[in-house]
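This entry is retained here.
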Amino acid sequence: MTDRWLLVHPPLLGPAVLGPLAARLRESGAAVAVPDLRGLVQDPASALPSAAGWDRRWAGAVGPADVVVAFSGAGMVLPAVAAACAARRAVWLDAVLPPVSGPARWPAEVRGLVAPLTADDGRVADWTTWWGPDAMAGLLPDERVRAAVLAEGHRLPAGLWAEDVAVPPLTAEPRYVHLSPAYDADAAVARARGWEVAGDGRGAHLDVATGPARVAALLA
């Protein structure tokens, strides 16, 4: 039976960043879903920018899956999403690792990075603009991939990074895939928990888009 894969994009980006990886997994015979969860960060009950309850909305929006892969900041909600999917495997892909039990809180360095990027309207600047006007061409050399990622640019409620995230018991088999030095600490925690860790962290965070064949091999 073909495995059903669910790839979860981080709050700061849309599903396009995972498009090349999804395509590579499909070539290998997997059934892959990459839902667009961007609109579910905003609290629909609030007229102001608010991310209250975003983790519950993300977990409630997914369907059944055998393997759930969370990239980057999506790692915060992976236990909840994996439980909602009844997944048998949960994979943190160069992702933020929450505690074994909740509440999970965003790392202080992430909150510090976001604070000066918050505008008067209570929203944070689109991530694709954080690094300067020419940075995305270097990060995503493929024009089609870059255009797709840029087209999904969006501004999140600044309060997202102050929201606690519930961490239910993890019933899926956990794995960690380490792509870049930025996630050395999270990979080390995964090893300390006795999890399988693939990858050496010597690549780049956006290898999901620029080197999908290598990342797919690590996931396998």
About this structure: The chain has a mean pLDDT of 95. The chain has nine helices and six strands. The radius of gyration is 16 Å. The first strand starts at residue 4 and ends at 8.
